[in-house]
Amino acid sequence: MRLKELDRLELPASADMHVHLRQDAMMELVVPQIRQGGVDTVFVMPNLEPPITTVAQALEYRSHLQSIEPNVQYLMSLYLHISVTTNSTSGVAAYDEFFPVFAAMEKHDLVLNLHGEVPGGPDSDITVLNAEEAFLPTLFELHQRFPKLRIVLEHCTTAAALDAVRACGPSVVATVTAHHLYLTVQHWCCDPFAFCKPVAKIPSDRDALIRAACSGDPKFFFGSDSAPHPVISKRGGVEGRNKTPAGVFTQTVATQYVILAIEEAIERGVVREENVTQERLEQFLGGFGRQFYKLPNTAKGNRILLERKGATIPESIKSKDGSIEVVLSRGGDSIFSLSWE
């Protein structure tokens, strides 16, 4: 597929299998952005304050989301994250005590979603650059103990993580974000709006992710990990002295970010045009994710139309009263416009 030469591209609606929709006023701002990005199905992360830990809480949260945007399918989750991401300080420190839970999940065909990083510390050799690779032995152990448990290694950032997922059986898959298809360490080291966890790694890792996204391998599918934060927080607070929270916001044009990253990868020679087919693009953006979560096939359902009309990525989105502003990644870059058919 010669993406650069296409003026028009029709696709099934995307399924974004890893989103952060927050709560309260931020939720009100972010949820309407889902369909703007060509997405009709989302897997919602539970790390709110306090986190979603019961089915009743998840159903209540889904009800709030549906009241804002009813034309999206919300797949809900319960909180069991390791303490490495925003609002995750009450997360799991060790897995052993949860083996009975995992056994029950395996029995009832539930999905275990893993933020695959080992927490570091002041005297630890584990850093943001190697935390994902350090987690991979744990992934193998969990898969060995619970071979039929469906596991998602969320937001992979390294070639090593991709290889680990490939080495596991069909019950282990991974999500790949849009921003990890174009960001590297050189971006987030000096730009707070490119800082996320897991952090973007080196160019060879980025390129491995691109090849996985274009491979047609059902083990890899789209999950944006779009994570909104107020602009003032990303800049370190009022005085600029606070820690920058982890998260890159891409929800508003989620589908277009993926296509933009693939276009650039073709130009760099990372993938060949003939390897980027319509079918592979559709499967990565939604087909494989829906298949793994055993959702109905929507190939003949909601569809989106992408056209080159001079559209650009917005610099930011703001609440109606202007009290909340969230900056988008790569604001001002040219992208396809998107409409629903």
Query: Rg to the nearest angstrom?
Result: 19 Å
- Specify the overall morphology: globular
Mean pLDDT: 93
Spans of at least 5 consecutive residues with low confidence = none
Biggest pleated-sheet summary:
4 strands, parallel
Oligomer: single chain
Give the helix tally.
11
Structure summary:
Helix content is 31%, strand content 15%. By secondary structure, the chain is an alpha/beta fold.
List keywords for this structure.
341 residues, 4-stranded parallel β-sheet, 15% strand, 12 strands, 11 helices, 31% helix, alpha/beta
Describe this protein's structure:
This protein is an alpha/beta fold. It has 11 helices and 12 strands.
Write the layout of secondary structure elements.
Blueprint: E1 8-12, E2 14-19, H1 24-30, H2 33-36, E3 39-44, H3 55-68, E4 73-75, H4 99-107, E5 111-114, H5 131-145, E6 150-153, H6 159-167, E7 172-176, H7 185-188, H8 203-213, E8 220-222, H9 231-234, H10 254-268, H11 278-292, E9 303-307, E10 316-318, E11 325-327, E12 337-340
Parallel strand pairs: 2-3, 3-4, 5-6, 6-7, 7-8
Antiparallel strand pairs: 1-9, 9-12, 10-11
